[in-house]
């Protein structure tokens, strides 16, 4: 099922060794004519020089959750949020416990090489890159604490900042652990952050943390400072992700109600829950203006909730493409913050084998939408619409969704 303006132009199914029932496709990153796809089994590199005929270049087996991926120059980074027997890809799950970031040299796309790792408290659920020339700073987001865990002891009101010297990435290390919530008094309940989106050109970041949204000043990337803390106890369960508009005058925060495993796109769930909240930045403070949730009701066996998305680079408009798990891929316009609306979609039928499925991440890159589908593989979509067509004039050299660049 799809809208008339959206077409599936390619699908590349998962292939061995990443096609087991638990080998979920996860996040995406882009660089030049290549797409990088994370998977619980490792990561894959695709040649997308011809977007309608993607070709698999290589796969690196490196099992862990979630293996969210970013790329900068010849470096690829994976987030590991599950205790492993060691830092290397051949380490089995379990003790002795290690989790954090794994780093790879991708100068040879056909043969990436493991170069090192950084252990972090409570691992790394997601991470965010802030490039500063030959030094790369990485914000590590991780939930916690887990009082009985070796790797995730309380308190955990923090994010972690990793410094990566690009001329010696194997020497990467944690250089600071900013406490974002000193007012909480180091609670033992779930804290930390799920996802941080940085906009380095504007020296700001938006953090989606467990229970709150946070606006940060990152002019000093090693010591970010809190500008504002947002709460929405009535509607938000898990502040999952954040997206600035191009002007940096709005932030969209997504709520991953149910953690991605529940059917929240149904008539029994209010339209403000498991949705996106649109905030306008007014006099340096974020003010909520509206909510957006896909208008199509999903079946009771379809996990569906707001998940990873990105801007479609249309000058003068605020348009976003977004994954909704089994709710599919949605294209929506929030130029009018109080009245957002869907303008296109692609939605598969319920996954026949049941369980967790659907689009994990859906991002626009150089004329196409790429969707990392948990079970179906890599999808390439084309949207043809007067509202989005101007985006075809914008060319990006690379794209990591949590490090926004202006267009």
Write up what this structure looks like.
With 407 residues, this protein is an all-beta fold. The protein is 0% helix and 44% strand. It has no helices and 30 strands. It has strands spanning 6-12, 25-31, 34-39, 42-47, 55-61, 66-72, 75-80, 100-105, 113-119, 126-132, 135-141, 143-144, 160-165, 173-176, 191-199, 204-209, 212-217, 225-230, 239-244, 250-255, 276-282, 285-292, 309-312, 319-323, 329-333, 341-346, 359-365, 368-373, 377-383, 398-399. The strands form 7 sheets. It has a 5-stranded antiparallel beta sheet with strand order 5-4-3-2-30, with no helix packed on it. The protein has a 5-stranded antiparallel beta sheet with strand order 12-15-16-17-18, with no helix packed on it.
Write down the secondary-structure element order: EEEEEEEEEEEEEEEEEEEEEEEEEEEEEE
- Average pLDDT metric: 95
Shape: globular
Q: What structural class do helix, strand and pairing data support?
A: mainly beta
Radius of gyration: 19 Å
Strand content: 35-45%
Taking the alpha carbons of the first and last residues, their distance comes to 31 Å
Largest sheet: 5 strands, antiparallel
| Helical coverage, percent range | under 10%
What's the number of helices? Answer: 0
- Order the strands across the largest sheet as they lie in space: 5-4-3-2-30
């Amino acid at each position: 099922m799809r809208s008339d303006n959206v077409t599936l132009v390619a699908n590349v199914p998962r292939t061995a060794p990443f096609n087991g029932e638990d080998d979920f496709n996860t996040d995406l990153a882009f660089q030049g004519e290549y797409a990088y796809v994370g998977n619980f089994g490792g990561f894959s590199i695709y040649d997308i020089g011809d977007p309608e005929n993607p070709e698999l270049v290589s796969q690196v087996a490196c099992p862990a959750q979630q293996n969210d991926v970013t790329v900068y120059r010849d470096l690829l980074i994976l987030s590991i949020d599950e205790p492993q027997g060691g830092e290397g890809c051949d380490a089995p799950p379990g003790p002795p416990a290690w989790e954090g970031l794994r780093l790879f040299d991708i100068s040879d796309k056909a043969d990436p090489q493991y170069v090192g790792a950084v252990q972090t408290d409570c691992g790394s659920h997601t991470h965010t890159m802030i490039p500063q020339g030959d030094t790369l700073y990485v914000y590590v987001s991780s939930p916690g604490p887990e009082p009985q865990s070796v790797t995730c002891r309380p308190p955990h009101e923090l994010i972690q900042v990793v410094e990566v010297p690009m001329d010696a990435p194997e020497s990467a290390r944690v250089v600071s652990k900013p406490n974002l919530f000193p007012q909480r008094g180091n609670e033992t309940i779930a804290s930390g952050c799920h996802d941080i989106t940085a906009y380095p050109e504007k020296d700001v970041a938006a953090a989606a943390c467990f229970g709150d949204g946070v606006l940060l000043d990152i002019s000093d990337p090693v010591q970010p400072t809190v500008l504002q803390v947002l709460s929405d106890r009535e509607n938000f369960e898990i502040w999952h992700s954040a997206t600035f508009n191009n002007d940096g005058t709005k932030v969209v925060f997504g709520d991953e109600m149910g953690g991605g495993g529940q059917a929240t796109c149904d008539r029994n769930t209010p339209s403000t829950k498991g949705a996106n909240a649109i905030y306008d930045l007014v006099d340096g403070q974020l003010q909520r203006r509206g909510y957006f949730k896909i208008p199509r009701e999903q079946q009771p066996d379809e996990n569906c909730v707001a998940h990873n998305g990105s801007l479609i680079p249309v000058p003068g408009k605020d348009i976003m493409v977004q994954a909704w798990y089994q709710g599919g891929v949605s294209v929506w316009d929030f130029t009018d913050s109080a009245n957002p609306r869907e303008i296109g979609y692609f939605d598969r039928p319920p996954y026949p084998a049941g369980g967790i499925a659907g689009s994990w991440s859906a991002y626009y890159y150089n004329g196409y939408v790429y969707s990392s589908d948990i079970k179906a593989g890599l999808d390439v979509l084309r949207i043809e619409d007067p509202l989005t067509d101007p985006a075809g004039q914008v060319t990006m050299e690379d794209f990591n969704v949590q490090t926004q660049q202006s267009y």
